[in-house]
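Mods, move this if it's the wrong board.
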Amino acid sequence: MGTHSFEELEGILAPCGQNHLLRFWNQLSPEQRNQLGDQICSIDWKQVVQWSKTALSDAGSTAIPFDRLTPAKYVPLQPETTADATRLQEARAAGEALLRAGKVACFTVAGGQGTRLGYDAPKGTYCFSPLRNKSLFQYFAEAILRNQEKYATTLPWYIMTSPANHADTIRFFEQNQYFGLLPQNVRFFIQGTLPGFGLDGKALLAAPDSLALFANGHGGTFAALKDSGTLDDLEARGIDYLAYWQVDNPMVTVCDPLFIGLHHLTGSEMSSRCLIKRDAMEKLGHFTLLDGKLMIVEYSDMPKELLEQRDPDGRLTFRPGSPAIHILSRQFIRRLTDGVFALTPHRANKKISFVDEQGTLVQPTAPNGVKLEFFIFDALPLAHNPLILEADRAEEFSAIKNAEGNDSPESCRAALLERTAKWLEQAGVKIPRKADGTPDVTIEISLRRAVCAEDIAELVQKGAIPRSFAPGDQFALD
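Not the wrong board. Structure tokens:
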């Protein structure tokens, strides 16, 4: 914590019209002054105020020219020709070689709290598995351990937290002995923050000695990787590719060799998985092309006629949607963060608690300001040769976002059980099913033992898993 003078801070804020942030200076203790001063000095006010002005003006919501928008092409999982099949085989082999060579690391965005789940702690610490009650972080750690074993390699794991959950996240890993991973191969860093602004363009104070600060969104990934020294760590380790996923999707295929290999062979700087939308109204961002440039258009921004548009074969025209699974090339991150940061934040209207001119805390009942946040997919138009690979929803995606209903722990457990049952049936195991077709068993097989159907088949052959189950059986394999 540095020591700051009123004159120094006023010199920073006054040219940007933000010196109201010092209105309580004479009432603050030395420690409080230093806290506020540190926050003020950590912000590029000229840039941030310009972003806020843009966000608050009509220019902040420039209409997308939808008449020039076309659906993005993607690589289907099921090859259509012999050449396509050969390409996928070559890509898988290339990905496996890169994993063995230590060129890949894991990257999880985990800055959120479990608020929507009714859980007041980092979302990654949320326990959800049916029999062993494992946390999201443990799920990913066990998958990383299995992949390290399969490819005889080290897979460093980078975890981006937020100021609100950083200390709790590290404490959770320490209490659980890093789930068997070596601590030196698990690195935590904090995403950046930006001040919230009132509708008059003035930055808000959360307290007399503190700005109203908010995490700057998953698009803040790039700057945080550089500012935290993580990018330098990647270079020192010889890592070329980061496998990126969000903490709320335990079904993600950690370090998928097919995805990594395609990214490498096509010379892509940023690659993405896509889900084929279940229906026109499914709330996924749409992979689109605008004048030849790949971009994602949010569900809420797409006109109804484009959402419902269909091809002659009856499929949705704009059908590839984003589950936020990417591969990032290290050199792309370096290029994007050298010099002027190229992304522009989006505006989110928020109810922002603040202290008024008398120092009274005001808790608004309606949106009274804007939060600025970056989206990681805004980097796609800046990437060379961006690639989109189809993902099998039943194999790779079931998010835990809500306490109940869709995207809940219950729906995720059901999806995980169905995937496990399918893998077991492919290996010749008899799985009883209910009248509605769902498995009539509860089975939990640790990702430490199996991350794919081939792993399950090996375990069945070795006798580690029974060849048949009775209705209502419970079975766990750690």
